[in-house]
Amino acid sequence: MAGRPADALGENAERWQNQNGSGAEPLSARRVPQQAATRTASRSRSGRVAGSAARVRAARGAAIRARRGERQPARARGVALLLALPVMGAALDEAVSSQLGWAFLLMAVAAAAVAAASCSRSALWWLVPAPPLVVAAVTVTAELLLGPAAFQGGKGLTTGAVRWGVDAFPAMAAAEAAVLAVLLVRYARARLGGRAGSA
């Protein structure tokens, strides 16, 4: 039983040569060049597809690197504004009066709003909690350097820290509210822009 397929093939080959002459080219030899040509064509097509996919990946990578390069200066500007404007407001308030006031609050709000408007999505993780921390740090530094001498000792420093926390709270809350409001406006504009583009 195992020998029957081979016998059938041999009989078919004999029949082929009898019908086409003894010098006829075997059928399998005719199929090989066609199969090779088909394989070569499919390889060249797959090579073209792979090449175009590689070009697309390279273009996407270049675009991502360009966007990252553009984000670096914007991120640096956001950090500089977030720090510089409250310091300027604190210096102005300390020059005019003995404690932090409206100039500090307004500068802290402006700094938070500008930083939120200019930051990238990837920077939100540090931007959202930053304004209260910046306000607290600037408040403590300004009061230690420029505040009354009564807050320079141990017990005076504890009393001063409580007072500074209470005095700085409105600026902290306003700066955080400004960040959240700007981010909410950015989100709403992005959603409306996406809907208008799809309509």
| Total of DSSP H or I helical runs spanning 4+ residues | 6
Radius of gyration: 38 Å
**Strand portion, in percent?**
under 5%
Number of strands: 0
Question: What composes the largest sheet?
Answer: none
Number of domains: 1
InterPro entries: DUF6542
Biased composition (Low complexity): 36-54
Region (Disordered): 1-54
Transmembrane segments: 98-117, 124-148, 168-188
How would you describe what is shown here?
With 199 residues, the chain is mostly helical. The protein has one domain. Helix content is 85%, strand content 0%. Helix 2 runs parallel beside helix 5. The mean pLDDT is 75.
Short account of what is shown:
85% of the residues lie in helices and 0% in strands. With 199 residues, the chain is mainly alpha-helical. The protein has one domain (41-198).
Per-chain topology:
Blueprint (H helix, E strand, L loop, with lengths): L3 H17 L6 H70 L5 H17 L5 H4 L2 H17 L7 H45 L1
List keywords for this structure.
199 residues, mainly alpha
